[in-house]
Amino acid sequence: MLRCVLAVCAVAAVYGQTDNLVQLATKIGATDLVKVVTQAGLADTLANKGPFTVFAPSNEAFARVPKRIIEELERNKTLLTDLLLYHVTNGKVLSTQLKNGQLAPSLFEKHDLRFNIYNEGKLITAEGSPVALADQQASNGVIHLLNKVIFPIPEGSVVDFVSRDPFVSTLLKAVVAANLVKTLEGGPFTVFAPTNEAFNRLPPGALDKLLANVTALAEVLTYHVVKGTVYAEGLTNGERVATVEGQDLSVRKMGPERVIINNAMVERADISVTNGVIHVINNVLIPPPKK
Ligand SMILES: *[C@@H]1O[C@H](CO)[C@@H](O)[C@H](O)[C@H]1NC(C)=O
Ligand SMILES: *[C@@H]1O[C@H](CO)[C@@H](O)[C@H](O)[C@H]1NC(C)=O
């Protein structure tokens, strides 16, 4: 007799685990996923091979994807296939086996998926997307239903992202001037990355003054870095998070898409990189003077 938690036993009893992944996905209501899996020609693999662990976006998750992106996916089968394979890992991984910050290679060119566990296990995320329903067991694997579709970005570290993205080129310049490139290749880190506009919003002369004083610059920059990976879903309203600089940041949250760090708004959340996660913000965070 397999040991299992009640909910899983109940599912096993109802479905007898005779449903394959595609049949089970249909039964639990992930019908949009089944539709696109079929379009991509992956239904046969998911029905008959495995075992696989599928992080299955719900219909609500697909409904939240911008129309422009859906149309692009419909036009480009390679893009669609890559996206779907990014939601699948080899083997049967139950939620109880996941650890906070754990990485597992997806079937999309081994791009990693990162799992996080928040709120004493009450919230599990894959690449920042909350698991809405875990541990649905099929004959050839297991399904965890996701609240959001997850999109792979080109592989690379925090520094690679900052080097590539034209909207944060001032940050790159500052990181280089402060000799922090090597530090930021470590991690894993959560980085609040101010845009070029955020740097432009500093008082006149403030940026030049910082660039001329490596100590002060490094203090400001490390005040944007938190150890470990915290995706937006894992941040809670009223929370204080310790930075590498040593002082805390305060978090305000007015809903999943509205996160404020001190006086800065998160403009783009949850950019997953190999050694962490980046949240792009619209103001530079200035550490309070040390006592
Ligand atoms: C389709 O997507 C792939 C993978 O992202 C890309 O390399 C390719 O250029 C795209 N093809 C077209 C016609 O847009
Ligand atoms: C550089 O910054 C540090 C830390 O903020 C400060 O203690 C120091 O006085 C500054 N040096 C100059 C020359 O302004």
UniProtKB/TrEMBL annotation:
Alphabetic keyword roster: Signal
Pfam families: Fasciclin
Signal peptide segment: 1-16
Domain (FAS1): residue spans on this chain: 17-150, 155-285
Residues spanning the membrane: none
Cellular component aspect of the GO annotation: extracellular matrix; extracellular space
A molecular function GO annotation: cell adhesion molecule binding
One annotated GO biological process: cell adhesion
Name of the protein in question: FAS1 domain-containing protein
Lineage: Eukaryota, Metazoa, Spiralia, Lophotrochozoa, Mollusca
